[in-house]
Amino acid sequence: MTATAARPESTVSAWRSPLASYYLLVSATGILVLVGLAVVLSSSSIASIRTAAGNAYAGFLTQLIALAVGMAALVIGSRMPIAFWRRAAPLVLYGSMALLVVVLVTGYAVGGNKAWIRIAGFSLQPSEIAKLGLALYLGVVLSRFRHRLTNPRDIMLPGGLMAAAVIGLVLAGKDMGTAMILVVIVLVAFWVAGVPARFFGMVGVLGAFGLVALVFSAKSRVARIEQWFTGECVGDACWQQTHGTWALASGGLWGLGPGMSREKWGWLPASDNDYIFAIIGEEFGLLGTLLILAAFAMILVAVTRIVTRSTDRFVQIAGAAIGAWIVIQAVVNIAVVLEFLPVTGVPLPLVSSGGSSLIMSLAAMGALLSFARHEPGAAEALAARPSVVRRSLAVLSRGRRRG
C-alpha cells in the first residue's frame, strides 16, 4: 500500500519540480536528434551515391558537421543569462535581414524558392536565422512597449514593421512555406504580449486576401491546392504524396527496420528532408512516428510551463514564439506527409537533413533551455545537484567500508 501510494505522489513531485521544463526539453531534443540522424543516414545514402561520386556518407557527414555546430550553439546558449538573449536579438535579426538581401541579389533557387546562398562551400538558408531573430526581437520590443499595444501605430512600430519587412524579404524569394511559419511566430508573439483580439480579426481578413493573392500568383501553388482540395491527382503531380503514403503504410506497427526503407531508393523525393517523417514510419513503424509526436508534445508542454511560470515578459513572449515555430512547423510538416495539407516544403525541425535548419533549431532549443534554467526555483535546484551527487557518493563509500 505504501509503495503504491508513493508512486503518484513522486510523479506529482517530479512534475512540480522547477527543472521539469528543462528535462522535458533535453529529453525531447535528444530523441528527435538521434532519430533524425539514424533516418538521415539511411535516406540520404542513395542520393549521395548518385551525386557525390559514389560516397554514400556525403550527406550524412554534412549533417554531422551541422549537428556539431548546432550542439555547440545549444550548449553555450543554454548557459547564457536572459540578458544575453535580449542583447543578441537585434544582432541576429538585422544579420539575417542583411543575408536575406544577399539571397535576393546573389542567391540560388531550389524547388522554385530562391532562399539559399553559398558560404565557404556550404549552403546557408538565412530565413532559418530570421525565425530565431524575429522571435527574440519581438520578445524584446513587445515586452518593452507592452503597455502601449492598444492602437495600430504602437503595434506596428517597431515590432509589426520589422516583422513585415522580414516576411516581405522571404516572400520576395517565393518561399511561401517559411513565410507562413514566420507569420505564426509573429501572431503568437503579439497574442502573448496582450494585443487586443480585435486586431487579430483585422489581420486575419487582410491575411486571407494576401494569401489568396500569393496562391494565385504561381500556377504550381494553385495546382497543389486544387489537387489537395479535390483529391483528384494522377501521374507525376501526386507522385510524392502517393509514395509518402505508401512508405507509412508499409511500415505497419513495428516498421521494416533501420535502413530497410524501400522508398528511399529514388522513389520518394526529399525522403531525407520534407518527407523524412514517411521514412520514419516505414523503418520504425507506427511506434516510431508516435515517439516523434510525443517528443514534440514534450516541447509543447515545456514551453507552456516556461510561459506560465516565468515572471519575465521577454521570456514569455520569446519563449512562446520559439515554441510555436518548432511545434507548428512540425505539425505542418507531418500534416503534409499525411496529406492533411497541401505540399508546403518546410522541414521537420531537429530531424530533417539540412544544415541551416538543424543549426538554428538547436540554437532555438538552447534559448528555451536558458529560459527553463531561469524559471522560479530552477537555478537553486541546478545549484543543488552537485551536493546530491556528493551525498550519493558518500553513501556508496560508507557502504563499501561496512562491507
Automatic annotation (TrEMBL):
It is a multi-pass membrane protein. It catalyses: [GlcNAc-(1->4)-Mur2Ac(oyl-L-Ala-gamma-D-Glu-L-Lys-D-Ala-D-Ala)](n)-di-trans,octa-cis-undecaprenyl diphosphate + beta-D-GlcNAc-(1->4)-Mur2Ac(oyl-L-Ala-gamma-D-Glu-L-Lys-D-Ala-D-Ala)-di-trans,octa-cis-undecaprenyl diphosphate = [GlcNAc-(1->4)-Mur2Ac(oyl-L-Ala-gamma-D-Glu-L-Lys-D-Ala-D-Ala)](n+1)-di-trans,octa-cis-undecaprenyl diphosphate + di-trans,octa-cis-undecaprenyl diphosphate + H(+). The keyword Transferase applies. The keyword Membrane applies. Keywords: Cell shape, Glycosyltransferase, Membrane, Peptidoglycan synthesis, Transferase, Transmembrane, Transmembrane helix. It is an enzyme of class 2 (transferase). It holds the Pfam family FTSW_RODA_SPOVE. InterPro entries: FtsW/RodA. Its EC number is 2.4.99.28. It is found in: Membrane. The chain crosses the membrane at residues 21-44, 56-76, 88-110, 155-172, 178-194, 199-218, 275-302, 314-338, 350-372. Belongs to the SEDS family. FtsW subfamily. Peptidoglycan polymerase that is essential for cell division. This is Probable peptidoglycan glycosyltransferase FtsW.
